Every structure is written in C-alpha cells, then in structure tokens.
C-alpha cells in the first residue's frame, strides 16, 4: 500500500495523480474522506498512512450508484457511452488550446517542426470525418503559426473561431486566450 501524500489544493471531486502522472487511489480517497468528515482545508501535508480496510470502507461509502450503472467487475468505472461530436470536440479543443498554452515561448526549429507535424497529423486522424476534412483544409490555407507560444495560441483561437462561425456560435475574443487557457482569470 502506498503512503503517497495528497496534493494540496485539489478539490474532493478530482481524481488525484501522483508526480508520475499515475492515478493515486489512496490520495483520492483521503481527500474524499477529508471532505466527508469536514476536515478539508486542515493540514494535508503529513497524512497518517491509510490502511487497506479504511480504503475499502470509504469506497463503499462513496459508491452510491446502482451496480447496473457500473462496468461489470468494477466499483469505479461508470458505463459511459462513446463520445459524440460535441463531447469529442470540447475535449479536443481543451487539449489543443492547452498544448498551445504550454508550447515554448521561444521554440527551437525542431520544436516548431514537431508542432507543425503534430497539427497536420491531428487533422488527418481526428475521429469526426467532416470536422477533420475542414480542419485539414484550414491548415492548408492557414499554416499553423508555430513561431512562439503566443502566436500558436492565437492561431489556435482563430482556427477554433472558424469552426465556431461554421456552427453559428459566438466568436471568442482571442485577447483572452491566456486567461482562458494559461493563467486563469484572477488578474483580469
Ligand atoms: C478540429 C475540430 C473541428 C471540429 N469541427 C466540427 C464540425 O465541423 N462540426 C461540428 O458539429 N463540430 C465540430 N467540432 C466540435 C465543435 O467545435 C465543438 O467542440 C462542439 O460543438 C462542442 O462545443 P462546446 O459548446 O462544448 O464548446 P467548444 O467549441 O468545444 O469550446 C470549448 C471551450 O473553449 C473555449 N473557446 C471557445 N472558442 C474558443 C476560441 N476560439 N479560442 C479559445 N477558446 C475558445 C470556450 O471557453 C468554450 O467553452 C470540431 C472540433 C474540433 C476540435
């Protein structure tokens, strides 16, 4: 059993991951326990080691779903349907804007080439045929601006706005790309 320390500042609703990016069950249950027991916000830097039995009891307490809603054999995974075009789109834009927001401010020629390649390949494999076709066309006519983080993020915003326009949705003000996808709104 792992004695990993929970991350600070993550809400009880989140799944917690350790520094290697792996799901941390003890951390998640510990945080949930804190919420349930009203101890959220108290020190979480040195939690007592969590015993198997405790985790099992907490899992049972947390599981309020009928078992028919869960994947057979699992106490964790709900039977979710495959994503439709909207769910896929929203998740994909989140990924693409986040990638752009983490792109280096001064990328090397190699990083620029990699990013161009990635976006080209993305437009070929995106699992919505007509979305992919249009995105591929957009990329051909508007080569991704991979010179810097700022330029790539604005390019991404404009590419997204092109789709928004096609779908009759409002245009997003690209002046706010950084607040939306990198820094948050605290400083606005
Ligand atoms: C490459 C690609 C092509 C697509 N093509 C199609 C298509 O042809 N037909 C179709 O029906 N759907 C398409 N989609 C899906 C579509 O764009 C939406 O994702 C989907 O309609 C769900 O919309 P949503 O309201 O959840 O918000 P989304 O458009 O998914 O946006 C998610 C969030 O991003 C932020 N945001 C919105 N616009 C911008 C912007 N310009 N810049 C930065 N942030 C922004 C907002 O905070 C918004 O809440 C495509 C998705 C992708 C990734």
CATH architecture of the largest domain: Up-down Bundle
Topology-level CATH name of the largest domain: Four Helix Bundle (Hemerythrin (Met), subunit A)
Protein structure class: mainly alpha
Q: Quick one: how many beta strands?
A: 0
Low-confidence stretches at least 5 residues in length (pLDDT < 50)? Answer: 1-13, 40-47
Bound molecules: flavin-adenine dinucleotide
Largest sheet: none
Rg to the nearest angstrom? 21 Å
- Number of helical elements: 7
Strand content: under 5%
How would you portray this structure in words?
With 188 residues, the protein is mostly helical. It folds into two domains: 1-80, no CATH class; 85-183, Four Helix Bundle (Hemerythrin (Met), subunit A). 51% of the residues lie in helices and 0% in strands. The chain is built from seven helices and no strands. Helix 1 crosses helix 2, helix 3 (85-102) packs across helix 7 and helix 4 runs antiparallel to helix 5 (129-141). The protein starts with 24 loop residues before the first helix and ends in a 5-residue tail after the last helix.
């Amino acid at each position: 059993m792992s004695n990993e320390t929970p991350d600070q500042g993550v809400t009880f609703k989140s799944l917690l991951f350790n520094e290697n990016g792996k799901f941390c069950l003890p951390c998640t249950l510990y945080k949930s326990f804190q919420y349930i027991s009203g101890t959220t916000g108290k020190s979480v830097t040195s939690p007592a080691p969590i015993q198997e039995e405790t985790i099992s009891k907490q899992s049972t307490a947390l599981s309020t779903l009928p078992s028919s809603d869960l994947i057979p054999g699992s106490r964790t995974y709900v039977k979710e349907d495959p994503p439709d075009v909207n769910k896929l789109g929203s998740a994909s834009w989140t990924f693409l804007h986040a990638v752009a927001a983490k792109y280096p401010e001064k990328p090397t020629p190699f990083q620029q080439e990699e990013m161009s390649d990635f976006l080209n390949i993305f437009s070929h494999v995106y699992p919505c045929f007509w979305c992919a076709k249009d995105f591929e066309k957009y990329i051909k006519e508007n080569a991704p601006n991979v010179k810097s983080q700022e330029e790539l993020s604005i390019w991404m915003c404009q590419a997204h706005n092109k789709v928004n326009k096609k779908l009759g949705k409002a245009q997003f003000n690209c002046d706010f790309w950084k607040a939306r996808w990198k820094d948050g709104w605290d400083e606005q």
